Amino acid sequence: MDRPRTLRELKASGYTPRSVRDEMRANLIRRLRAGESLFPGIVGYDDTVIPQVIHAVLARHDMLFLGLRGQAKSRMLRLLPMLLDEFRPVVDGVDLPDDPLAPMFGPTRRLIERLGDDTPIRWLHREQRYHEKLATPDVTIADLIGEIDLVKHAEGRPLDDEGVMHFGLVPRSNLGIFAINELPDLAPRIQVGLFNVLEERDVQIRGFPVRLPLDVCLVFSANPEDYTNRGRIVTPLKDRIGSVIRTHYPRDAADALRITRENAWLTRAGGPGLAIPRYMAEVIEEFVRLARTSPHVNQQSGVSVRASIACMETMVSSAERRGILLGENPVVPRISDLVHVHAACRGKIELMLADDDQAEEKLITALLGEAVKNVSAAWLDASAGEAVVEHFQGGRRNIEIGDEVPARTLAQAVKDIPPLAEAAAAVCRRAEMDAGEPAALASAAEFVLEALYVNNRLSKYLYRGGTFYKR
């Protein structure tokens, strides 16, 4: 509230103007020296992407974040304003943000000449200095740069007067950061319109003698060029972008789990209590990892982190539905809940070739089975698994599972098979769950049974709407 409100007060405060890039650079250096987090909430980029961003800011570069979908490109763009000053003074009463002590535009200079030290000042918060535009084929030069306002021209203003212009988003982002998401979607002729902004730091409207010097940092996001048929980044534009920063999917399983848990909606109000076993979360992450390496999946499209998040939320919703319908509290997700994650994968996993309508469903089922197989290798003791198989030998036993089978019913059936109860209890201990809780024991038992099935040690079949395991 005590910030200067007039040009006179601003001069007395000792304020010194500086460019946006110098401002970002100075704040970055300060935060590095203080050991502050530069990009809170970004996981797995500490040794790869973030150093590239640091180098680009230190070099005062414009930036292009290049990577497949779901690699936090937009989130990184939206965190860049953290490198701006919290507040910056601009002249009040003009269309474009302009520095009071280093005005760039004619209307600002004329206002200062008229009012002198009484020129009013307003303060922009850093969030007000960040503007973002999603690139679409219908974006025009007028949207980004501006256009001649014929109404103002008809009022008698000459065409070489900045006051005759209707400004686009780039000039309105002066003294700030302007981001364009999905840059290749811009038509080539529109991309060409950005040449001058990147190279000369000014804009020109329709060939009229109106040139606007700009102080703006431009940042972009894009998928790799060979991914999309919608367009490409024209080569001269790439040449003018200072740093191209490659993003990637999580390279560490722990990072992937953390990203999913932090972004998925897992704290549900109004329903039963919920506990998510670590092995179920690992199955989801392993499933997505396998999809990213499968030859049947279009890797140029990528498999977004949003696939992990949506699958986790759907699995939890299946368990929540069971708790609501059966009156169970708490609930624990089981292997049988994974049947429903197919809906969360549609549109997020693109097949290379689809021979039939069920190809996607079959691939998802196969990848889930492979994920259970890989995860269970670290969770199950081989001797315990063999003991369970021996108990099923000769068809003496079978056991029904399903997302609508009550936890108490399944837990009781598990206890009637001592080797299975012991193996499930061991999984509960490793997952830090109480094996005396029916929902936890039921979940662990399904995990053991499915692990034996995917390793061809047990059979699984459907009978009268139920799913059974047997030897």
Overview of the structural elements:
The chain is α/β, with parallel strands linked by helices and 471 residues long. The protein is built from 20 helices and 14 strands. It has helices at residues 7-13, 20-34, 49-58, 73-79, 106-115, 141-144, 150-154, 169-172, 188-192, 195-199, 235-240, 253-263, 278-293, 305-326, 342-345, 359-376, 382-392, 407-415, 418-430, 438-454; strands at residues 63-66, 87-91, 121-125, 130-134, 146-148, 165-167, 176-181, 202-204, 211-213, 216-222, 243-246, 399-401, 459-463, 466-470. α19 crosses α20 (438-454). The N and C termini lie far apart (76 Å). The model has no long low-confidence stretch (mean pLDDT 89).
Portion in strands: 5-15%
Number of strands: 14
Spatial shape: elongated
Strand order of the biggest β-sheet: 4-7-10-1-11
Given as residue ranges, the uncertain stretches (5+ residues, pLDDT < 50) are none
State mean pLDDT (0 to 100 scale): 89
Largest sheet: 5 strands, parallel
Q: Radius of gyration over alpha carbons?
A: 30 Å
Number of helices: 20
**Category by helix and strand content:** alpha/beta
Helix content: 40-55%
Distance between the termini: 76 Å
